[in-house]
UniProtKB/TrEMBL annotation:
Signal peptide: none annotated. Keywords: Membrane, Transmembrane, Transmembrane helix. Pfam families: PhaG_MnhG_YufB. The keyword Transmembrane helix applies. This is Monovalent cation/H(+) antiporter subunit G. It comes from the Archaea. The lineage of its organism: Archaea, Methanobacteriati, Methanobacteriota, Stenosarchaea group, Halobacteria. The chain crosses the membrane at residues 7-29, 49-78.
Length: 104
């Protein structure tokens, strides 16, 4: 009973990871400017990687490699938004204007 719940949770977490990673990839391809692309890459990709790593940690169980997986999860949650902010700030300081719908 507990094992089937664990496997079900792993499947749900993997599905969530795949969904958010797909949303992130689609957003990076379809969105019009660097600012919106950085936003979707930061938010959705962090969630996708977080769900996938949580599934890996749950699948590994109580092992030393699970601790490494949790540290990697924490590292991604800290660095992905920071990197997206750095990219957006560099674009702003370079003079790249945000996309506006009323412009040609």
């Amino acid at each position: 009973m507990i094992e089937s719940l664990r496997v079900g949770a792993i499947v749900v977490l993997i599905a969530g990871g795949v969904f958010f990673t797909f949303v992130s990839a689609t957003g990076v391809i379809r969105l019009p400017d660097i600012y919106t692309r950085a936003h979707t890459a930061s938010q959705a990709d962090t969630l996708g990687a977080g769900f996938a790593l949580a599934a890996v940690a749950l699948a590994l169980g109580w092992q030393p490699s699970t601790v490494i997986t949790v540290f990697l999860l924490f590292f991604i949650f800290v660095t992905n938004p920071t990197a997206a902010h750095a990219v957006a700030r560099a674009a702003y300081e370079s003079g790249i204007e945000p996309w506006r719908e009323d412009e040609p």
